[in-house]
Amino acid sequence: MAALEVADLDAGYGELQVLEGVDMTVEDGEYVSIVGPNGAGKSTVMKSVFGLTTVMGGRITFDGEGITGRRPEEIITTGIGYVPQNDNVFPSLSVRENLEMGAYILEDVPEDRIQRVYGRFPILEERAGQKAGSLSGGQRQMLAMGRALMLDPELLMLDEPSAGLAPDLVSEMFDRIDRINADGTAVLLVEQNAKEALARCDRGYVLVQGQNRYEDSGDALLSDEQVRREFLGG
Amino acid sequence: MSTVDLGGGISRLTSERTVRALVVVAAVVLALDLVRRIYTGSLTLGTLGFYLWNGIVDGLVFGLAGIGLSMTYSILRFANFSHGDLLTTGAFSGWTVAYLIAGAGIADTSSRLLLRADGGAPPGQLDLQILGEPIAILAGLVVAALLTVLIALAIDRVVYRPLRDAGGIPLLIASVGVALALRYFIALVYTSQNRAVTASSPEWSSPVFFWTEGVNVHELTMVVSATVLMVGIHLLLQYTKLGTSMRAMADNRDLALITGIPTERVVRATWMIGAGLAGVAGYLIVLDRGTITINLGWFLLLLIFAAVILGGIGSIYGAIVGALIIGLTINVSLVWIPSDMNEIAAFGLMILVLLVRPQGLFGGVETA
């Protein structure tokens, strides 16, 4: 059974249509990457799943339940976590408060989940009382992921987690994503760093001008002559 | 190109330095003059203490009013020009209740309901001061907060909510309309006549208040209430889930939405706190002044804005500190200038601070 299924999706912002007939699936526990040139609509796919765009046609289901056009605060309860690309932490809140906000919809602060996030990202425990605004780019990215993991999502959507990171931190970030996926969380990843993203994922989509262009396993896309020439710079 | 930039940079740097130097020189001159005046006896320590005390009283009440203004700015993202009239709403509703209770059996119900619109039973006859009618005054305080909250929530539902995503300018303009509508609705009910509603305050002499023979109990009430409420707001914002979510929403509304924070509930809480404090501030101002008028809040709004901007708009701590500075300035400046010009000193100081620190004292340090 497909966890996330996007079928024939037309979506955009207000009058502006960005996506045209996009099809996409993420199976339970699968790791899927979306790559493609700037402006292809990669982030728009995620935003549409999370109810942040205007859906003009098509449907989105998660665990068999239709979530097309639902509001973000409803979608978060279905088991999807989302980490946007920019401004993805609350800068004036402490690291711990950011995590607590991630679990806002739960009755009590789930101490065990906070500890689990600390276990995954030990630097966050060291910085627990510090304001998130004082963290480095890589630490912020970890905090943003930690916040999204607070509800123990079945699917984690990450929008360009490597953007703006120093090169030596990029592969570390991808390792962390691998581990989150290995622990059973499905991952949908949008990346500029296409080579790395395709090398790590189970399956990949190449999106061009708001439409599906290629879909295959990550390795197959990486070795495809045409994909290499067009999108991976040889 | 680079020389032009360099030149601009240098002239900006020097002008900033000039302003700083001027501020320091002015402060030193004023301080020396203050010492001279005290030494020669043209200013007594008692008078200076009186000015300082009044400055703290004014500052704390402005701060109470400013917290709500700052919060609506940071969480709802607009400058609320109807905030002053929320003070007026609190003052009229609260004192109506105080009158209804304290004036029972002394004045007609209609006269009490309309807060002496007919000129009946003056406050002295009711003994309407804090020690004479403490229960009536406390009940008025509670109603001032509650009714102002209800009015603010109703206005939000009807006016601001449909405009939620319209941006700061349409919301600001709508709030000017709300200010006028609210004020003239109050005038319609209560008439626009300025009138006395509280009896003069008793004095309390105690060695704690070493600088004066006796302290005005009404002012003491204001200082205590304002301080308690401010500490309460601080605890709420820093240590509760609601407070944390308010700070989160002030930081980033979109992120709050996708984190699952119920943004509309946070907006309601913001109005409840901001309007509640505004209502209490308006009520307490009347307790001190003794008279009430429909322009009460509107005339104070500019000073409250000055305080909030001086402190760094969006920060409640900035609002409190800014308000204390403004309060102290308008009172201590009386040493040098006549009382009908003392607001010049307050606004002048605000301009000076903004020249040196355009984001305000606490701007960019702490939101909400």
Strand coverage percent of chain A: 25-35%
Tell me the greatest interface: A-B, 23 and 20 residues
Q: State the major sheet of chain B.
A: 2 strands, antiparallel
The helicity of chain B comes to over 70%
Order of SSEs of chain B: HHHHHHHEEEHHHHEHHH
Helix content of chain A: 25-40%
Helix tally of chain A equals 10
Proportion of residues in β-strands of chain B: under 5%
Radius of gyration of chain B over all CA atoms, rounded: 22 Å
Strand arrangement within the widest β-sheet of chain A reads 6-7-8-3-9-10
Q: Which residues of chain B form runs of ≥5 with pLDDT under 50?
A: none
Beta strands of chain A, count: 10
CATH class of chain A: Alpha Beta
Whole-number mean pLDDT of chain A: 91
What count of domains describes the coordinates of chain A? 1
Please give the alpha-carbon distance between the first and last residues of chain B: 41 Å
Q: How can the largest sheet of chain A be summarized? A: 6 strands, mixed
Main location (chain B): membrane
GO biological process, one term (chain B): amino acid transport
Protein name (chain B): Branched-chain amino acid ABC transporter permease
Organism (chain B): Saliphagus infecundisoli
